[in-house]
Each structure stands twice: as structure tokens, then as C-alpha cells.
Amino acid sequence: MSNDLRGLADLDRLIHEPARLLIVTILSTVASADFLFLQREAGLTKGNLSAHLSKLEEAGYVKIEKTFKGKLPLTVCKLTAKGQKAYTVYRQQMQSFMDKTS
Known about the structure:
elongated; alpha+beta; Arc Repressor Mutant, subunit A
């Protein structure tokens, strides 16, 4: 394996998974997002989104708050400082890889 490709082995695999990358990317552009917004924007099923959010929450990358809007339940998600840092590092690593291989 060439040196240029070795950088891929260092990527954060939690973020690198396509659905989670999409979720983290969306959350990096907003202060917070409710579950239905994330579901719509990411094009994921409720169960799939919930499973990916749980993994991101376990890693400390996403904070999830369950509250109510009137009488309706509302789940609000936001990227934590740790999650923002991990996403920034991931993007820098990917950019560096692309620069070296193009």
C-alpha cells in the first residue's frame, strides 16, 4: 500500500460510514436539528436514523434531547464540541488524501 493510501486507515470509522457522515455533515451546518428534519434531509428511515444517532451519541459526537412541543414529543439533536472536532479532523484527512492522490 502506498503512503498516499495509508491515510485512509486513520479515518474516523464512526464518521466515515455514509449515513453517519451525512448526519454529522447536516448537524455541522445548523445549531440543532429535530429528528424529522434529519430524517427528511438524510433520507433515512426512523429506525436507521435512530440507530446511527445512538452510535454518534455513545461516542459523544451528538447530544440528543427529548422534549415536547406542546403535547407532541420532540427529539432535538446537536453536534457536540467533540463531534465538531472529529468532523473537522475527518474533513482535513479526506482533503489531504484527495490532494495527495489527484
